[in-house]
Amino acid sequence: MLHTLDVRILLIASTAREHAIADALARSPQHPEIISICGSENPGLKRLSSTLHTGSILDFDFVLSIAKKIKPDFAVIGPDDPIGAGLADALQEEEIPSVAPLKSLARIESSKAFTRNLLKKYKIGTSPKFKVFTKPEPKELHTFIDQELHGNYVVKYDALKGGKGVKVSGEHLQSIDEGTAYGLECIRECGQVVVEEKLIGIEFSLLSFVSSTQVVDMPAVQDHKRAYDGDTGPNTGGMGTYTDADHSLPFLSKRDLDDAKEINRAVAAALLKECGEPYRGFLYGGFMAVRDGIRVIEFNARLGDPEALNILPLLSSDFVTICRAIIDGSLDESLVTFESKATVCKYLTPESYPVSKDQRGKEVTFPKMPENARLFYGDIREDVDGTLHLGGSRTAGIVGIASSIAEAESIAQKLCEQVQGPVRFRSDIGTEALIAKRVEVMRKLRGA
Ligand code: AMP
Ligand code: GLY
Question: How many CB atoms lie within 10 A of CB 64?
Answer without folding.
Answer: 16
